[in-house]
Amino acid sequence: MGNSMKKLLPYLKSYTKETVLAPAFKLLEAGFDLSVPIVVQKIIDVGIANGDTGYIRRMILLLAVFALTGLASALTAQYFAARAATGFATNLRSALFRKIQAFSYTQTDRVGTATLITRMTSDVNQVQSGINLTLRLLLRSPIIVLGAMIMAFTVDVRGALVFVVTVPLLAVAVFTILLVCIPLYRRVQSDMDRVTSLTRENLTGVRVIRAFRKEREETVRFDKANREHRRSQLLVGKISALMNPLTLILVDGGLIALLLSGAVRVEAGGMTTGAVVALTNYMAQILVELVKLANTVFSVNKALACADRLEEVLDLPTGMPQHSDDTAPDSGFSIAFRGVGFTYAGNAAPSLSDLDFSVSPGETVGIIGSTGSGKTTLINLIPRFYDVTSGQVLVNGKDVRASDPEKLRQKIAVVPQKAVLFKGTVRSNLLWGNENATDDELWDALSIAQAKEFVAQKDGGLDALVEQNGRNFSGGQRQRLTIARALVRKPEILILDDSASALDYATEAELRNAIRKLPYRPTVLIVSQRTASIRHADQILVLEEGRIVGIGSHAELLKTCPVYREIYTSQFRKGGDPA
Amino acid sequence: MKKANKIRTGTIRRILTLLRPDWFLLFLALLLGALSSLLLLLIPLFTGDAIDAIVGKGNVDWQVVKQNAIRIGICVLVTALSQWAMNALNNRLVFGIVYRLRLQAFETLQSLPVSYHDSHATGETVSRMMTDADQFGEGLLMAFQQFFTGIITIIGTLIIMLTIRPSIAAVVILMTPLSLIAAALIASRTFALFKRQSEVRAEQTAMIDEYVGNHKVVVAFGQEEEAQKSFDEINTRLGKCSLRAVFFSSTTNPTTRFVNNLVYAGVALTGALLCIPTGGVATFTVGKLTAFLSYANQYTKPFNEISGVLAEMQNSLACASRVFELLDEAPVSPDPPGAKSPEQIRGQITFSDVSFSYTPGQKLIENLNLQVLPGQKIAIVGPTGCGKTTLINLLMRFYDVNAGSIALDGTDIRDLKRSGLRAGFGMVLQETWLRRATVRENICMGKPDATEEEVVAAAKAVHADSFIRQLPNGYETVLGEDGGSLSLGQKQLLCIARVMLAPPPMLILDEATSSIDTRMELKIQSAFAKLMEGRTSFVVAHRLSTIESADVILVMKDGNIIEQGNHETLLRSGGFYTHLYNSQFETAQAEV
Hints:
The complex is a heterodimer of chains A (579) and B (592).
Chain A: H1 16-50, H2 53-101, H3 105-111, H4 113-138, H5 140-155, H6 157-204, H7 206-211, H8 215-240, H9 243-268, H10 273-315, E1 335-342, E2 352-359, E3 364-369, H11 375-381, E4 390-395, E5 398-399, H12 405-411, E6 412-415, E7 424-425, H13 426-430, H14 439-448, H15 452-457, E8 465-466, H16 475-488, E9 493-497, H17 505-516, E10 523-528, H18 531-534, E11 539-544, E12 547-552, H19 554-560, H20 562-572
Parallel strand pairs in A: 3-10, 3-11, 6-9, 9-10
Antiparallel strand pairs in A: 1-2, 1-4, 4-5, 7-8, 11-12
Helix pairs in contact in A: 1-2, 1-5, 1-10, 2-4, 4-10, 5-6, 5-10, 6-8, 6-9, 6-10, 9-10, 14-16, 19-20
Chain B: H1 2-19, H2 23-53, E1 54-56, E2 59-60, H3 62-111, H4 114-119, H5 122-164, H6 166-213, H7 215-220, H8 224-250, H9 252-275, H10 286-328, E3 349-356, E4 365-372, E5 377-381, H11 388-395, E6 403-408, E7 411-412, H12 418-423, E8 425-428, H13 439-443, H14 452-461, H15 465-470, H16 488-501, E9 506-510, H17 518-532, E10 536-540, E11 552-557, E12 560-565, H18 567-573, H19 576-591
Parallel strand pairs in B: 5-10, 5-11, 8-9, 9-10
Antiparallel strand pairs in B: 1-2, 3-4, 3-6, 6-7, 11-12
Helix pairs in contact in B: 1-10, 2-3, 2-5, 2-10, 3-5, 5-6, 5-10, 6-8, 6-9, 6-10, 9-10, 14-16
């Protein structure tokens, strides 16, 4: 146990009562179990020896009472254990989700979605059953083993010496096998991952594989991994198969020793036959419990490995540090970049360097450049999704690192590249922009985003259902709805990150015109690969490998910026310059 | 119900067939299982005999005690050995079957028509191959290890108890149903609770998938608290369902143990009373009572195990049938006998009256006629969903035509070997696919024995050399799943280099440069031009600038070719193509 659970134990805290009571009731049950051989011994040595049927009946009644109270305390224990385990899991999941919600973009990049999902589902389940098992069995089994030993001593001290030899030997055998198998099991698991990933890869590449006629080669690759997996399984199987035979030999070896030494003692008159029977019964109990214990330790170990993975998530630092604003108010500009450089965590090369530009309120700025030139990275710095590695980003004259990210983001609306909607209704999605918006405001936003028509045609209009990830809307419709969602906010700064790519030229032009006529005159940043989308901006930034290689209007850039000219002509070769 | 039973017997028969090659191992394993269970049952008997020889002070029959001690020792050793051998055999059997099943499934996947892959989610197929096969194996293992030995133990115990003392055995047999009924009652209730739990869990997983996957959007709109609220709502529900399911399922053990204890008490009572001499002679001994008690203790255990195994086996059968379903999917029609690979491909392609649709009743391509001369560049344009990619599916025989025919150099492509036909095409698709291997291995896919110079030349031709050299290990960098950290454009460049390295006589470029920016596209255009020279090429693109130089432009709409000709003639005709071509300039001008 030790360290692995330290971080997770607090989530068990609101279930302290259950956590204590479950093993307590389990111990009560164990106590009844342990008393049974003694009662049987009494039946033999007193009842049968004296021919006292009344005594026998009373003792049997006692056994029945033990069974009943044993049942009651076992059920109580199971209930408390289940409560503690499931309650713990519920708390833990909630905490993990909260933690993930607090992730910054950098952390989301680093951790990755797939693994977070596995951790929140299957890892939490494993830990839940681990806790459940621990509360029920991990205490009970050693106590029974120990208890059986102690009881054996009360029955007959010298006879019980056999236990002193057998039980430690058993423990050593069981745990050696466990210790050998646990790392091997991890191997099996990772081999399995490999087989899975090859299968996935093959399935996603069907067309290419067939085009290159690599079916055989793929099968050979798969077979190699598959074979490897079987080999690890067999190895672990061979070793863990030793568990049962080994415990059997040890326990029954002890039994033989008990019988022989018992015979000697009985003959000498130092012991009764009933005592021998009781001792053999205790030996049998120990066998059963040790096997159970071994299985429990197996599962608990699996759970601990999962707990480690969960702790990793909980240990990640979240949020962003708050800086004090030591700059002179640089007012007059809506957005200003001052010598900004940015390097993604884990990357050696910077993605942005030496960015310097200012944007006045109400201005429209176009950002253009090739794939990977840093356009999206640049706009992600404005709502402080990432912190700069050097220089400063100012919004309304204030360093974004000095302002509360939440308040900052209230003023800014981003339409991301990937058009994402969430399960719910059109309305619930739009209200993300501003939860107090009226229906009229929603329709206004839809109208500007060129989405009014198709929403009105949908069953239920604003209440039309949106499926997971918005999959019941086409790419273009999704894109327009995400634009509307941003407009509902009536932001001071509106950022469109290549968010009209699925719209045809005409619709896109109408959208741009509508945005230009917005009464609250937001500052607008448009990221695009198409010159047509940004040519009418007040200023255009041309990015190349993370640097600004041109700033100015369309006409100026055509004259002064070769990169811009190149992009422009690559798209308008035959059309010439219509301006 | 009847049908379900039929499927089940079918599945069981299939499993038996799977086991046939290993029948000897299986037989041996079962034999060893029977041997070890029976020997194990003898131990209490010998113990009892030994105890009966230990009567009291000065009254110990050493001969008998020793004899029984030796018997116990032999039993234990033989049992231990046979148990170990049985487990090893079972492992070999089961892991072998699962291994073969997976390999078969994978081979099946390679031979299934592309339409199967298009209509089945990857995750689902993976789960059949991995999880279902695994569950099946586990069930099989349990069946071999516990089911059979459990039955042997029960029968053996009954026989021994009946021979020792039928009247006490009757007490045990009469009380057995109690345990079974209790277990069955709990099991049926638990099943419903677990199902409910899985439903809520699935709901929660879907939500996690959506919100964690799109976390950046959640942050951008400051919806973290709202998300937490709706998460907690589902989470609380899940917590309640889990509590019920977990608790109810965990009552099985204490309940059956309770019944077991009652049986124990019953045996102790009747046995002890019989031990008391009535009329001077006791009809039962303490040793026999001890043996009986330990049988009574063991007797109900296999019942619990078997009920557990039966539940597990239901699941295992269901899983097996899912794997079999996959294996039974009809593979692509085999190449006709005598089919040959085309030898010298000239690249003349003729579509004659071709009709095709993915779903019967939903018309797509109808009566398509087209004559492509060797070395021609064919561009296919049109709005989304017009059937551009479908043409490529037909050319590569990912799908076969419903009517009419496609011929390569005069031979119907259905009379050619699929592998030979596909070898004639170099293909770059919009959806990039890179394998988890080094950059070099990915580029070399079409020509595994390519030299260093050839690989670098191909990479240089598409301007990928410089970014490849910036990767941690250059050309030897192992790419992660689906290209790992490469950008979409970079991945596309690698896919193009793959074809550049060993270009076949014909080319298919389906939006091959969609993620590459226009300037980069210009840079690699000369390489493309050289590649297409003398090769029959089919190019799908939405950027009209890449299409202007084509020999023939096919304008498609709703599965039909509505216009056909080169750029100039099409522009002059003023049709749909003219409209498409001008739309980009018109809007730009309208704004001025």
